[in-house]
Design a protein that fits this description.
alpha/beta; 12 strands; Helix Hairpins; five-stranded mixed beta sheet
Length: 499
C-alpha cells in the first residue's frame, strides 16, 4: 500500500517502558525527539517500529512493573492498536493491528539503533552480510527451501543407510559368495563321484567272475534238472516193467526180455544217480562260489576311504552354508514385516521410490539455487551501487570505497587504497558505515517505505555532519524520526519539527 506522505501520525503509549501515558505527533519531515537519559526515547522509537515490523520483541516494550500496555497510532482516518499482556509465566504477548505499510524488513533497513542487525554486527566487528541481504531481498525464502529440500535429501539418505537397506547392499556380496559355494560343492561332488566310480572299477573283476560263475551255475542246474527228469522217467519205466513181469509166465520169452530190460533200467538208474550226485555237488559248489563273489563285491562297493568320508562331510557343510546364504538373500530382499513404514515391501521397490524422491528434490534444490544466486547477485550489485551513491553524496572523507565482495564480505578501502578491518574503525566511523549500509538497503529494497528512524546514533557527529546526514535522508524519506539527548536531568520526551 502506498502511504500518504502528507498525513501526520499520532502515537499514543500506555505503560510502555518508563512512559505510563504519553502522546506524540509525527509529522512529514524531520521529527527530533529530545529527552534526558532513561526518559523513554528508545521505548518510543521501539513502539513506533513495532507498528510496522514484527522484529521488536513485546518484552522490550511493556513496562517492567505492568501487566498490560497499549500502543495506538492514529493515521489518517484509521486507528491501529497493539495490546501487550504479561502472562503468568512472565513472558509478554502482543496482539492487534499494524500500519498498512508495515514490512518485516523495515526494522533492519529503516531503524538505526544499537540493536539493529547492521549496527550490532558492525560495532561488533562483523564483516559478512549474506544473511542480511538474504532477508532484505527475500533470498531467504529460496535458501530456506533449499535447506529444507537438502534436509529431506539428508533424511532420505540416512534412511537408505538404515539396517534394511544396509542388508540389501550386501546382496551382491552374498550372491558372489553363494556362487562360489555352488562351484565348490560341484567340485566336491565331482571328486566324490570319481572316488565312487573308482570303487566300482575295483569291483569290476569280481562282478565279471560272478557273472561267469552264475552262467555256469545256471547251465549246471539245467543239466541237473534234465538228469532228474531222466531218472524219474527211468523209475517209471522200471516200475511198469516189473508190473508186466508179474503178469507174464516165467517160461515165456517175454519174461526173459522183461527181466533183461529191468536189469538195463537198474543199470541206467544207477548211472543217473551217480551223474545226479556229481552234478548236485557241482551245483552246490557253484552256488557257494556265487555267494562268495557277491560278498566280495559288496565288500568292495561298501568300502569307504577317509578321503571319501571327508569329502562327503565337506559337501554336507557346504550345503548347510548355501541354505544360510540363500535365506540371508531372501531376508535382504525384503524389509522386515515389523517395519512401521515399509513392512514386507521389496527393498528394490522402496529404494527406487526413495531414489526418485531424491532426484526430484535435487532438481528442486538446483532450481532454487539458480534463483537464489540470481536474486542474491542482483541484490548485491544494486546494494553496492546505492552504497556508492550514498558514499558520493555524503562526501565522506577518509574513505575511498565501501562494498560487498563476491562472498558478501564488507570491504572498507581507505583513501590510500589500504583495506581496513571493520574492528579497527573508530566508534563514529562504525556508525557512519552502519548508516551508509542501512540507507543503501532502504533505497535498494524498501524505496517506498515512508519512515527512517535514528536513535542517538548521530551523537558522535558534529552539527554540520549531522545536518548533512539528515538532509540526505530527507530527500528520500517522508518521515524521519531522530532521538537526541538533552542536558536536562528529568523530563518527558519533547518533539521539534523541521519541514
Amino acid at each position: 500500500m502506498q502511504p500518504d506522505t502528507q498525513l501526520s501520525l499520532i502515537l499514543r503509549l500506555e505503560n510502555i517502558g518508563p512512559l505510563k501515558h504519553f502522546q506524540i505527533e509525527i509529522r512529514p519531515g524531520i521529527n527530533i525527539i529530545k529527552a534526558p537519559n532513561a526518559s523513554g526515547k528508545t521505548s518510543l522509537v521501539r513502539s513506533l517500529a513495532s507498528m510496522f515490523s514484527n522484529q521488536v520483541p513485546p518484552s522490550h516494550l511493556l513496562s517492567l512493573d505492568e501487566i498490560q500496555g497499549k500502543i495506538t497510532v492514529q493515521y489518517g482516518d484509521r486507528t491501529y492498536v497493539k495490546k501487550l499482556r504479561r502472562t503468568s509465566s512472565g513472558s509478554v504477548t502482543a496482539s492487534g493491528t499494524v500500519l498498512p505499510f508495515s514490512d518485516s524488513r523495515a526494522f533492519d533497513a529503516c531503524v538505526a539503533m544499537a540493536e539493529t542487525s547492521v549496527v550490532h554486527k558492525i560495532t561488533g566487528g562483523g564483516t559478512v552480510f549474506r544473511e542480511y541481504l538474504e532477508i532484505l531481498s527475500y533470498g531467504k525464502y529460496y535458501s530456506t527451501i533449499i535447506s529444507a529440500a537438502q534436509e529431506l535429501v539428508n533424511d532420505i539418505s540416512r534412511e537408505l543407510a538404515g539396517p534394511s537397506f544396509e542388508r540389501f547392499e550386501s546382496i551382491p556380496l552374498l550372491v558372489t559368495e553363494l556362487t562360489n559355494l555352488y562351484l565348490r560343492l560341484e567340485q566336491v561332488e565331482t571328486k566324490i563321484a570319481n572316488l565312487k566310480a573308482g570303487r566300482e572299477d575295483n569291483a569290476k573283476d569280481v562282478v565279471k567272475k560272478k557273472q561267469e560263475t552264475e552262467a555256469e551255475l545256471s547251465k549246471e542246474e539245467n543239466g541237473l534238472s534234465i538228469l532228474k527228469m531222466e531218472l524219474h522217467r527211468e523209475e517209471e519205466k522200471m516200475k511198469q516193467l516189473k508190473e508186466f513181469l508179474e503178469l507174464t509166465d516165467d517160461s515165456a520169452k517175454v519174461a526173459a526180455r522183461l527181466r533183461e530190460s529191468i536189469a538195463n533200467s537198474k543199470k541206467k538208474h544207477k548211472e543217473l544217480h551217480k551223474a545226479i550226485a556229481k552234478k548236485s555237488k557241482r551245483v552246490a559248489y557253484l552256488r557257494e562260489e556265487v555267494a562268495k563273489l557277491e560278498k566280495e563285491r559288496q565288500e568292495k562297493l561298501s568300502f569307504e576311504s577317509e578321503e571319501l568320508k571327508a569329502l562327503e562331510e565337506e559337501a554336507k557343510r557346504i550345503d548347510e552354508v548355501i541354505n544360510v546364504k540363500e535365506e540371508a538373500i531372501q531376508q535382504a530382499e525384503k524389509i522386515p514385516e515389523y517395519d512401521p513404514k515399509y513392512g514386507g515391501q521389496l527393498v528394490v521397490e522402496v529404494r527406487k521410490d526413495l531414489a526418485q524422491r531424491i532426484e526430484w528434490l535435487n532438481k528442486v534444490i538446483e532450481y532454487y539455487q539458480d534463483k537464489y544466486m540470481r536474486r542474491m547477485t542482483s541484490a548485491k550489485l544494486r546494494f553496492n551501487r546505492n552504497i556508492n551513491r550514498a558514499f558520493k553524496e555524503l562526501m565522506l572523507k577518509g574513505f575511498e570505497n565501501i562494498f560487498l565482495d563476491q562472498d558478501f564480505k564488507l570491504n572498507i578501502i581507505r583513501e590510500n587504497g589500504v583495506h581496513q578491518p571493520v574492528e579497527t574503525l573508530s566508534a563514529s566511523e562504525k556508525l557512519t558505515v552502519s548508516l551508509m549500509l542501512m540507507l543503501a538497503a532502504k533505497e535498494t529494497f524498501l524505496p517506498d517505505f515512508p519512515f527512517f528512524i535514528l536513535d542517538e546514533l548521530t551523537l558522535s557527529y558534529d552539527s554540520a555532519r549531522f545536518k548533512q546526514i539528515l538532509n540526505y535522508v530527507k530527500r528520500r524519506v517522508p518521515y524521519i524520526v531522530v532521538t537526541a539527548l538533552t542536558s536536562e536531568e528529568r523530563g518527558e520526551p519533547i518533539v521539534t519539527y523541521e519541514a
